[in-house]
Structure formats: structure tokens, C-alpha cells
Prior knowledge:
Blueprint: H1 2-30, H2 35-56, H3 59-62, H4 68-92, H5 95-102, H6 105-116, H7 123-141, H8 153-179, H9 184-205, H10 209-213, H11 217-243, H12 246-253, H13 256-268, H14 274-291
Amino acid sequence: MASEEKKGTVFALMAAFVSGIAIPMNKLFVVDIDPIVFTAIRSILIGLVFLMLSYKRAEFKKAKKPDLVGLLLIAVIGGALAFLMFFTGLRMTTAGRGAFLHKTLPLYVTLLAFLFLKEKIGKKQLIALSLMFLGTIFVYFDAIQPGPFWLNPSLGDLLVICATFLWAVENVMAKRVMEGGNSNFLVSFSRMFLGGLILFGFVLLTGRLPTLLALNAGQVMNILISTLVLFSYVFFWYSAVKMINVSKASTMLLIAPVISMIGGILIFGEPTPLLQLVGSALILYGAYMTTKVKSDHLILEV
């Protein structure tokens, strides 16, 4: 039992590390690659893996009544629009700001679940949400001057916030779809593969096919590395929650934005003004408080 606890803790820490390096790493990649092309290819690759897993586990046969409309909306909202906004925003703002703003996901999920799933919000949750909201305001309005790697921080921050809100909408929809008998594998396949196809269609409609075909070996390698990093996160995370309490694993995951901020400073020389640090701390503490509240939300990561 002690061995399982130790392994689970190590897996949770590895998931936090991978999640932490993912944002500055992806920012480095999208500086040199069109974010729409980058996201479309990555999503299709990940979607193909979930397709194979779903087929191997006979998830399509197990589905009692596939909610085609719900699955398509998940693909459009969470698999296409949210990814498009997030990586476009990440290209414009700093990795540190993007990482902490992304951690406001529980804020929007809880509010939407209260409105549409009739889930209750306790006193502790309300305090946590208020802290996260205040932290978001601090980060967003603590403007920084544009730089070579963050050309329009205000617009970038706004796009990251909008993307995070769309992922919250997707989470609530995924909850309902899975309650209808559809598995998480089927939902993940729809989110990534169908979302990737939608993005690929956007690549064609906006005349970006030459950009896609002109990708060099280094850019293709960067996309594959980013895909592998996301796979690693999923592997470490689900291995952790299988062995230890999910609240303990979630708490360790809060190390991730700190790693992202440090990575942004070291790689890009990103500024960290005082109000941004205060706002980031409020978001982090609010997210920590939400891990102490029992909930059956399924929060899908990037």
C-alpha cells in the first residue's frame, strides 16, 4: 500500500512537471508555426490514438445511444475553437500569464455547472471562486509592454480567458453526454479528432494549405514533441489518480503554472510585475481550495 502511495505521488509530480513545461514549450513552438496549422495536426494525431483505443475497447458498440449533436458540439467548442483561441493567445502573451489564466478553469466550470447542472456551490467554493476571479482581474489589468515574444499581451490574455471559458462549456457538455451512456474515450475522440478535422477545414478555407505543406523537418518534429508531451501528461495523470486520492493528485498539479512561469522567465525573459504575481497567487490559492471540495466534475486538460 505504501509502495502504491509512493508511486502515485511520483506520477502526480511527473504530471505536474510535464504540464508545467508544456505551456512555455508550446509557446516556443507556435512562435515559428502558424497556431491553426499546429493545433490542427496535433489534434488529429491525438484523436487517431483515441480512435484506436475506442475501437480496441469496443467503445462505439458499448455506447447506448451516441449523442451525435452533443459530441459534435464538444468537437466544435472544445476541440476546435478553444484550442484555436488558446494557442493564438499564447503566441501573443507570456507563458506565465497564460498558465495562470488557464488555471481559472474550475471557476467557469463551477459556475456553469451551477446554472445548467443544478450543482450546489458551497461557502468554501464561493470564496475560492471569488479569489480566482479577483486574481484574473489583477493579472489581466496589470498590463506589460509588448516584447518580441509577446506582441499583444492584452489581446493574448483575453483569448486565453475565452479559450478557458469554452473548455468549461465543453466540460459541462461532456458531463451530460457521458451521463447519457457515452464513454470518456468516445468523448475524447470526438473532442480531438473531429475538432482536428474542423481545424483542418479551417486551414483549407483560409488558404493555409501552402503553410502546412511548407513545414520543415524541425517544425514537424516540434509538433510531434508537443503531441508526445500531451500523451505523457495523460499517462502520468491517470496513473496517479489510479493509485492515490484524486484531491492529493490535483493539489500537486498546482505546481504546474509555477513551473510554466519559471520556464517563461528563463526561456523568454518574461516580466513578472508585482500585481501579476499577486493575481497569480490568488488564482493558485483559489484553485487549491477547489481541490478540497468533493466534486464529480471531469475537467479535461489541454
